[in-house]
From TrEMBL:
InterPro entries: SMAD_FHA_dom_sf, YscD, YscD/Y4YQ_C, YscD_cytoplasmic_dom, YscD_ppl_1st, YscD_ppl_3rd, YscD_ppl__2nd. Pfam families: Y4YQ_C, Yop-YscD_cpl, Yop-YscD_ppl_1st, Yop-YscD_ppl_2nd, Yop-YscD_ppl_3rd. This is EscD/YscD/HrpQ family type III secretion system inner membrane ring protein. The chain crosses the membrane at residues 128-150. Keywords: Membrane, Transmembrane, Transmembrane helix. Residues 6-98 form the YscD cytoplasmic domain. It comes from Aeromonas veronii. Residues 165-219, 220-285, 290-351 form the YscD-like Bon-like domain. SUPFAM superfamilies: SMAD/FHA domain. Residues 365-413 form the YscD/Y4YQ C-terminal domain. Signal peptide: none annotated.
Length: 434
């Protein structure tokens, strides 16, 4: 059942208005009241009613007034009776359901019958018509003003509500939520959030504010669970499922033993069976495929015997000595491998760079003498004291019991000595370290 009311006093006298279900405020403040009346003595929130299909309940009223029903004081929570005389300060009103009509007047005026002459009756009739005309003009003006205030209040309230909702959606959890407020009567929210709890929190917020909305929101949690269920049924439970780079996308990673007909159609199957899934980033590898392909690429570039390959977590370490030409060949291998396998796994070169020939040190020590004039004997059986230089440009700078310091060009080298000291000054082999 729906209701309507009629005002019998003040600027809005004779005006009828519908009473929508829910909490309804009658008062003078357009920002707070649902039914705005601007008569003198009217409080911003004059009366607070709860309207339902079964009836209307008085919930609260402004200070300094006593609401009455047919002259009897009312209490909070009391149900009002339709068609009765309701009064609260300057407000005099009544209500009934929409299928009925309300009387023109509530006051029961005593009829006074007195003899009068015809001219007097004509004058009284003219006064009545003039009063009706004035009342109609007043009602029209009040309706125009009231409608403007009412719409203004609605627009201001809608703008404030939209700003409050946008502040709520500014949280990191709702960065992918899209608000469509083109229809002020029904807000549409679409997009994606990560967890189901975030979607529930948004729904509870909208309900608590009394917003009219349509929630077309997906959660990445639902997408991950849906994709995981399908992969498990197909025997791919070992794969990892994570959010993709874009909202609505999932990333698959891991390794499978072989590629069959089921796997070749996995992306289209997931998009078809998982509601809201927009795409799949497939980074799944076939077991051993990347090692076989890497070996083939190294073989093509002539690096198969030069580099050693070792798996370390999510990368492949390749170690060895490469010159400039071989480094260029390795870069070609790396680029082709990345095009085929992405960054899972990555190639990492641990290059013990081969020193160019002109920088290599030719200083093969055979023996060292620590006599009055220390010297070293090299592979050519020549003696080289401190200050001596070989034909290749290596100069002896110092001779110590544990090492020989030499230089070539601007670079110094330390030649470590190994072996036991002997009286014949013979030492074992030496190692070279720059």
């Amino acid at each position: 059942m729906s209701w309507k009311c009629r005002v019998y006093r003040g600027f809005n006298r004779g005006v009828e208005a519908p009473l929508p279900e829910g909490r309804l405020v009658i008062g003078s403040d357009p920002l707070k009241a649902d039914l705005v009346l601007v008569d003198e003595g009217m409080a911003p929130e004059h009366l607070v009613l709860l309207v339902t299909g079964e009836g209307i309940t008085l919930q609260a009223w402004a200070d300094g007034i006593t609401p009455t029903q047919d002259g009897v004081a009312l209490t909070a929570g009391e149900t009002l009776r339709a068609g009765t005389r309701l009064e609260a300060g300057p407000l005099l009103w009544s209500f009934c359901d929409n299928s009925r009509s309300l009387p023109e007047q509530l006051e029961a005026l005593a009829a006074v019958v007195a003899p009068s002459r015809a001219p007097r009756r004509r004058a009284a009739g003219a006064d009545v018509w003039m009063g009706v005309l004035c009342l109609s003009l007043v009602v029209a003006v009040v309706l125009l003003l009231g409608t403007g205030w009412w719409h203004g209040a609605d627009e201001n309230e809608s703008a404030r509500s939209e700003q409050a909702l946008k502040r709520f959606l500014a949280a990191p959890n709702y960065r992918q939520v899209v608000l469509n407020s083109s229809d002020p009567e029904l807000w549409q929210l679409s997009g994606y959030v990560d967890e189901n709890s975030a979607r529930l929190a948004l729904q509870q917020y909208l309900d608590s504010k009394g917003f009219s909305y349509r929630l077309e929101l997906r959660t990445m949690e639902d997408l991950r669970q849906g994709a995981g269920f399908i992969l498990q049924k197909l025997g791919y439970e070992q794969l990892q499922i994570r959010n993709g780079k874009e909202p609505g996308w999932l990333k698959l990673s891991g390794e499978i033993q072989g590629q069959d007909g089921k796997w070749s159609t996995i992306e289209s199957l997931l998009k078809q069976e998982v509601p809201g899934l927009l795409g799949v980033e497939n980074q799944v590898q076939i077991a051993g495929a990347y090692r076989k392909r890497l070996d083939a690429l190294l073989q093509e570039q002539g690096l198969a015997g030069t580099l050693r390959v070792r798996e370390a977590g999510g990368r492949l370490e390749l170690s060895g000595q490469l010159d400039e030409r071989q480094l260029s060949q390795f870069q070609q291998v790396n680029q082709q491998f990345r095009r085929e396998f992405g960054t899972h796994p990555t190639l990492e070169l641990i290059n013990q760079t081969r020193t160019p020939r002109q920088d290599e040190l030719e200083f093969d020590v055979r023996s060292v003498s620590f006599g009055r004039v220390p010297y070293v004997v090299l592979a050519d059986n020549q003696r080289y004291p401190v200050g001596g230089a070989t034909s290749s440009g290596v100069r002896v700078l110092a001779i110590r019991p544990d090492a020989v310091v030499v230089s070539k060009g601007k670079q110094q080298y330390i030649v470590k000595l190994k072996g036991a000291e002997r009286h014949d000054d013979q030492f074992g082999s030496a190692t070279v370290r720059r």
